[in-house]
Every structure is written in C-alpha cells, then in structure tokens.
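Now read this:
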Amino acid sequence: MNEILEKYNQLSPDLQKQVNDFLDFMLEKYKVEKAFDMKSWKNKILNISTWTDEDVKAFDEGRQHFSQWKVEEW
C-alpha cells in the first residue's frame, strides 16, 4: 500500500485527478459505496445561494403595494 501511495504522490496534480476519476469510475461500476466526503459536502453548502438585504427589500416593497390595492366591487 505504501508503494502505491508513493507512486501516486509522484504524479502531477493533473495525473492524480485522472487516477481519482478512474477510481471513482471503478467504484461506481462495481457499486462500491462511497464514504461520506465532508470537504465536498461543505463546498456544496457554501455554494448555496442566499438572499441579500436588497433582495428581501424588493419583497417588502411589493408586499406594501399589494396591501394598498383597492378591490373593485361588482
């Protein structure tokens, strides 16, 4: 196992990515369950969009105008 790690560490980052991609492919092919990847999960969470105060302000203004509408009587 140490030999594999030594060889892997000698590869360039691009080649290490190719090795990782190949291993992911093999794991998927043989349906080996992946371990939870905390780093990947954190990156996904950090990329979730959030509303700014300006975004919320537009809704507040819209709500005020909505409550000022006069209903037509028939």
